[in-house]
Structure formats: structure tokens, C-alpha cells
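Sequence, please.
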């Protein structure tokens, strides 16, 4: 069965932050001598131009500007960037355009400027409304700053916005975690990302681990938080994503369903399907901002690309499931077949053991596949058994 071209998104990476948080393993760099703002926008547009031959005739359905801290850039720069994108590739009329923003880097007057550029969704990195926890997490804002930033975003016209919240924080109690959720709900977001603090390699917390809640307490915090969100009409649609009806993040959903995405900016990753060659290729750009700028602005050809690989057919089941099983409602068989070119039996044979154990729900009537509630707890084990050589 031939693969059909899935929806196409665009990810744009902004690699600078005011300071590096001790838990962060993203490609972000503390500002030392200012941001080369105009040069970076120019580099992003050149980067996009070099990638365009990969997607001729296609349109962008969603844009996500992540980081780092995109909101450190001015509305004028964002306007130039988005105008340049529109001049180079078609955008869907109702394209979702998201910008990540940290409360400590948002000036109130800037938010209206961001909204006027066409950005229609913001994701605000609050993490906690507890000042003591924010200090432990190395955040540059306090609770009042976070609340003021959210209220300013609403006044600027952002009726579709996400609040990032972390749980199982150092020395956190259930009561503190529930207070964070209650404060978030009082601000009327359309989406809440609720995810556990994990200690990642190559972070300050990895070298100096804080005292985190034990597994039993972390599970209690998660369970009560999930229930509190459900009581307020926030439905969990992915492992750490909750939204009101019709307010799922369309960009991330495209990732999870193995859609295609261009990636521009320092360290950005991409996945592109080729209908003629019947291949799927992943590629990534140079990580360090200086190296990215040099390679993009002073070299010829697609020199921003640091590496790439074409997926082998025996990798496709794992690559698809790695994301799609995160969705609480799973995926339909037709999407799997269209996006991978594989047949039903190739998927079923990989999952049969977990279906028999009740970890995977295979619904033949509706042609859908999802992890059970118990299966959500063992996703890593399921995926390990789905590795190409297993």
C-alpha cells in the first residue's frame, strides 16, 4: 500500500533564554551579549527556502514557535518572519499559529503586537504558581508575574492559550499541586499541559538532584490533578495534555499522528514524506546558534542541515507508535496505513502480545487502536518490544 502525504506543519526554534533552568534539556542558551534578532530572522527564512523543494505544492496547516523563549523577539521581528513565510509557502486559512512565551519575558504591550502578526495561540510556561517552587525551578518570574501575563494575553485577544504546569516538584505536597491547578483554572485557559518533573541527563538537576516526591506521592498528585481537570471539563487527550472541547493543540496532534513537519532554526528537527520515492526522512539542523547562523547565512545550498536519515520499513511501526500511543483515544487503522504505507497485519503482529494482556485495545468494529488505562503506564515497555529488531 502506498503512503499518502499526511498534513504538513512547521516548527520554528528560538534557542535563547534569559537564563537556563536547572531541569531543562532543550536546545536553549542563556543570553550573554544580546540576541542577533534580525540576522536570526533572515537565517530562518533562508533555511525555509532551502527546505521548500521537499514540500512543493503543499500547504502549512500549523506553525509552532518553540524554544528557548520566542517571546524574547519583538513583534516586529515576528511580523517579518510570518510575512516571509506566507510569501514562500501557502498557509491554510485557519492555520493554528502558536508561540511559546515565558511570563518573565512578556511585556504587556508586546502581546497585542504578537496577536496582530497573526499569532493566534500562546503557550505560557508558568510551571507553578508557588513562589517557593518557582525559585527551586530556577524560573525568573513569580506567581503574580505569571497571573499578570495570562491576563494581559487575554486582553490582547488570545482566547486560545495553554498554561504549562509541572507536578511532583521538589518537596511538593498534594495540596500545593492542587492549588496550582485551581489557580490555572481560575484564569480560564483553553488548554493545560500537566506533566511530571523528570530529571534529564546533562542538566543541573542531574548533577545535583533535588528531593522529589516518591512514586506513591507523585501518583497521588497526578491522579487528583487529572480528576480536578476532568471535573472542570478538561479532557485528557494525550499523556500530559488536557483541553476543553475542540481546543486540542493541532500542531502537537499532527506530531503524534505521524504527520509531516518542516523544522527551521537552531537544532530544529523535521520529518518529511516523499510520495514519489515512497520514503520518510528525518533531518535536523545545527544545534548551536552561532554555527547555525554561520552555516545558513554564509554558505550555499542546504548547509543548515546537520544530519538526516531515511527510515527503513522495519522502523515504521515503532516510529508511528512512539507518538500515536500517547493519545488517550489512540488512532485509526486508516491513518496508520496512509502515513506508513504498511498493512494491518504488520501492526497487529507487533501488538498481539499486548492486546492479549489488555494493555492495547484493538477495536475491530471502529478500526481504532489505543493503549488501555493500564497500558498508558507501560508505554515504554510496549515500545521497547516494538523496536525494529524485536
Amino acid at each position: 500500500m502506498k503512503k499518502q502525504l499526511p498534513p504538513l506543519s512547521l516548527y520554528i526554534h528560538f534557542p535563547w533564554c534569559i537564563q537556563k533552568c536547572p531541569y531543562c534539556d532543550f536546545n536553549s542558551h542563556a543570553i550573554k551579549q544580546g540576541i542577533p534578532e534580525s540576522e536570526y530572522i533572515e537565517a530562518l527564512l533562508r533555511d525555509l527556502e532551502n527546505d521548500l523543494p521537499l514540500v512543493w505544492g503543499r500547504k502549512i496547516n500549523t506553525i509552532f514557535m518553540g524554544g528557548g523563549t520566542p517571546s524574547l523577539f519583538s513583534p516586529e521581528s515576528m511580523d517579518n518572519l510570518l510575512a516571509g513565510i506566507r510569501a514562500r509557502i501557502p498557509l491554510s486559512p485557519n492555520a493554528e499559529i502558536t508561540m511559546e512565551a515565558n511570563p518573565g519575558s512578556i511585556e504587556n504591550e508586546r502581546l497585542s503586537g504578537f496577536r496582530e502578526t497573526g499569532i493566534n495561540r500562546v503557550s505560557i510556561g508558568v510551571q507553578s504558581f508557588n513562589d517557593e517552587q518557582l525559585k527551586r525551578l530556577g524560573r525568573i518570574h513569580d506567581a503574580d508575574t505569571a497571573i499578570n501575563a495570562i491576563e494581559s494575553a487575554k486582553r490582547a485577544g488570545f482566547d486560545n492559550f495553554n498554561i504549562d504546569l509541572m507536578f511532583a516538584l521538589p518537596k511538593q505536597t498534594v495540596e500545593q499541586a492542587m492549588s496550582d491547578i485551581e489557580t490555572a483554572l481560575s484564569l480560564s485557559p483553553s488548554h493545560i499541559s500537566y506533566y511530571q518533573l523528570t530529571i534529564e541527563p546533562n542538566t543541573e538537576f542531574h548533577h545535583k538532584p533535588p528531593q522529589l516526591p516518591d512514586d506513591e506521592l507523585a501518583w497521588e498528585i497526578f491522579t487528583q490533578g487529572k480528576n480536578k481537570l476532568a471535573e472542570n471539563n478538561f479532557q485528557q487527550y494525550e499523556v500530559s495534555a488536557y483541553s476543553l472541547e475542540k481546543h486540542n493543540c493541532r500542531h502537537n496532534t499532527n506530531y503524534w499522528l505521524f504527520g509531516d513537519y518542516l523544522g527551521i532554526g537552531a537544532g530544529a528537527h523535521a520529518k518529511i514524506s516523499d510520495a514519489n520515492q515512497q520514503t520518510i526522512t528525518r533531518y535536523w539542523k545545527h544545534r548551536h546558534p552561532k554555527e547555525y547562523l554561520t552555516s545558513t547565512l554564509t554558505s550555499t545550498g542546504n548547509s543548515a542541515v546537520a544530519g538526516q536519515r531515511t527510515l527503513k520499513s522495519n522502523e515504521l511501526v515503532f516510529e508511528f507508535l512512539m507518538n500515536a500511543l500517547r493519545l488517550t483515544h489512540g488512532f485509526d487503522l486508516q491513518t496508520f496505513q496512509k502515513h506508513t504505507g504498511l498493512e494491518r497485519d504488520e501492526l497487529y503482529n507487533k501488538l498481539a502480545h499486548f492486546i492479549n494482556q489488555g494493555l492495547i485495545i484493538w477495536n475491530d468494529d471502529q478500526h481504532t487502536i489505543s493503549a488501555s488505562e493500564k497500558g498508558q503506564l507501560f508505554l515504554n515497555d510496549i515500545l521497547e518490544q516494538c523496536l525494529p529488531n524485536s
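The chain has two domains: 8-254, 314-385.
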